[in-house]
């Protein structure tokens, strides 16, 4: 479903210098995979996620989503890809503080042909699925870290994207909450989405279906992990 073919990415520095952040990356991902991307700080993990998420299309090689090269998307197509095909989850949740849980989710809906009440119904359904049925009227500062991350996950799922990209999704959670969020994320992959996350957590990596290690912009390890099953 997602295929990276000879992907390289260099950042331009001063004095016409370039820094190669990704070098000849060849890898493909399937629906239903829960992938952990690991590697030292500065190895290229964020750069890779930015490419996959359509946040940066300045690279060489082919980044194929369902056979089409993201590198050749018009800015309009890239916009649509980011909004509808990918859901983002961050370490720091990135919720809007003055909006309720429900509004944090509905505001992310991009399907323009849906009326207000249908939007709210859809958001309520997703929030119930992630275990926040009784917290929809609260503001983010009235939630625990794990609950905030559940809101962010609901927001990421609201447009039914094929790919979920998560940057250290458990990075600011304690170990018990990490397990709960990991279980939720695992279920999302089981239901057929491709989940790719950057993590420094051994626990998270150990419970992924695949672990990809990056060093100096190259893939140095790509190992099969746990059998997470499918729903
Ligand atoms: P990024 O990989 O997104 O550039 P960093 O590598 O700077 O981010 O690290 C993000 C967070 O993870 C920071 O809080 C940092 O202290 C922590 N961290 C970095 N490397 C490790 C590691 N090897 N093990 C555990 N935590 C780490
Ligand atoms: P990671 O997420 O694994 O910490 P990054 O993808 O953020 O790694 O960075 C990979 C390398 O690219 C690092 O050496 C970093 O300093 C460099 N880099 C990242 N962003 C830029 C940028 N905008 N300009 C120049 N160099 C960058």
| Biggest sheet record | 6 strands, mixed
Radius of gyration: 18 Å
In the sheet with the most strands, the strands line up as: 6-7-8-3-9-10
| SS-derived structural category | alpha/beta
The helix fraction, in percent, is 25-40%
Order of helices and strands: EEEHEEHEHHHEHEHEE
Protein model, in words:
- Belongs to the ABC transporter superfamily. Macrolide exporter (TC 3.A.1.122) family.
- It is found in: Cell inner membrane.
- GO terms for molecular function: ATP binding; ATP hydrolysis activity; transmembrane transporter activity.
- This is ABC-type lipoprotein export system, ATPase component.
- The relative contact order is 0.20.
- The protein has 231 residues and is of the alpha/beta class.
- It is built from seven helices and ten strands.
- The strands form two sheets. Strands 6-7-8-3-9-10 form a six-stranded mixed β-sheet, sandwiched between helices. Strands 2-1-4-5 form a four-stranded antiparallel β-sheet, covered by helices on one side.
- Helix 4 packs across helix 5 and helix 5 runs parallel beside helix 6.
- One adenosine-5'-diphosphate (ADP) binds next to strand 2 and helix 1.
Topology summary:
Layout: E1 2-12, E2 18-29, E3 34-38, H1 45-52, E4 60-65, E5 68-69, H2 75-84, E6 86-90, H3 101-106, H4 116-129, H5 145-157, E7 163-167, H6 175-190, E8 194-198, H7 202-206, E9 210-215, E10 218-224
Parallel strand pairs: 3-8, 3-9, 6-7, 7-8
Antiparallel strand pairs: 1-2, 1-4, 4-5, 9-10
The structure holds adenosine-5'-diphosphate (ADP) (2 copies).
One adenosine-5'-diphosphate binds at residues 41, 45-46, 168, 171, 200.
């Amino acid at each position: 479903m997602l295929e990276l073919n000879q992907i390289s990415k260099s950042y331009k520095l001063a004095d016409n210098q370039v820094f190669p952040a990704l070098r000849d990356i060849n890898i493909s991902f399937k629906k239903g995979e829960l992938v952990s991307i690991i590697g030292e700080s500065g190895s290229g993990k964020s750069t890779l996620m930015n490419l996959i998420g359509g946040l940066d299309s300045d690279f060489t090689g082919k980044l194929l989503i369902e056979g089409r090269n993201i590198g050749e998307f018009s800015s309009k197509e890239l916009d649509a890809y980011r909004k509808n095909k990918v859901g983002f989850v961050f370490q720091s949740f990135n919720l809007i503080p003055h909006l309720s849980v429900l509004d944090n989710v509905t505001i992310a809906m991009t399907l323009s042909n849906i009326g207000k009440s249908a939007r709210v119904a859809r958001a309520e359904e997703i929030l119930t699925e992630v275990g926040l049925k009784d917290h929809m009227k609260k503001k983010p500062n009235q939630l625990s870290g794990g609950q905030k991350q559940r809101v962010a996950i609901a927001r990421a799922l609201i447009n039914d994207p094929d790919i979920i990209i998560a940057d250290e999704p458990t990075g600011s959670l304690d170990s018990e909450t990490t397990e709960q969020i990991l279980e939720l994320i695992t279920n999302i992959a089981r239901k057929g989405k491709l989940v790719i996350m950057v993590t420094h957590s051994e626990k998270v990596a150990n419970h992924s279906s695949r672990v990809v290690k990056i060093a100096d912009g190259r893939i140095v390890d790509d190992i099969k992990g746990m059998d997470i099953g499918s729903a």
